[in-house]
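Two proteins, back to back. First:
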Amino acid sequence: MKLAGLFVIDVLFAFLGFSAAHSLKMKETICRELVEMASFMRIELSYSLNTYERIIDSLNKEKSFNKLNFIKNLNAESFQIITPLSHVENERIELLFKKLGNVDVASMLEILDSFEAYFNEQKKKYEQQYQTHAKLYTAIGMLGGAAFTLIII
């Protein structure tokens, strides 16, 4: 019975390490989808000159943005953006949607270019962190569980 409990503790620590690695992968995926969203919005603005509401409706209908849950809650009055990304990155997303419909098309296209470049860099950063830290987080979790188990024994 005691061994089963120690095994559960070891698995729990390993899961915590895996969870930390998975959060980095999720951030990279969200950044990738944000870049795709900016490209999609650029096309919508450039070729069809859609209004704010139509662009938001188009984003909601697009299936490739499944990790961008905040899109479903967007409206003209409220811009509460909550993602696993940092506070600064969330503010950058909020700023994009605040500008949408409030500036001319040429300025909005420049904003989208800047937004896309910024999140491309963030995606690369999270991708690099995932490649260098994922195995480390998992190993630390497993070793932490083993060390905790040894301390209890």
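And the second protein:
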Amino acid sequence: MKRNLICIIVILIVTAMVFSSCGVYNGALLNQMMWKLESAVSAKTQILDRASVHGKLNGNGNGVQFFGAVLVEGIAEEEIRQIIEQLSDEYEEVNYAKQSGNEIQLRHLEHRKPRFSYSSFAENKQYYMIYFIESEHPYANPMDLSGH
């Protein structure tokens, strides 16, 4: 009886470790994706802030989705389009939107709401968010509980 209890406890601990490591792995994968975005953007302009999240972002069902964004100021839309074109092969979707506050409002973010921490928005300046969405990354670990 005591041996069975110990086996059950060991199995539960190992299972918990496996599932928790999936989130860490997908977080590291998101960091790599953010690094690519930040490298492309920082070559053209200064990044004011960044925000990212992974897990179930929208829709129903299972699957890990990734979102990453950088906040920039005073960059021409033509330069943003060049950045997007440069990154279009890296991500499922790369786009930009005008940004006037901390909240990120996108249709892709139904279940999670990342925010920018930057708080010095000036009314006379133009801010843009350059972002990516990745919903079927080939190396994402589907056992991550945040995707369910």
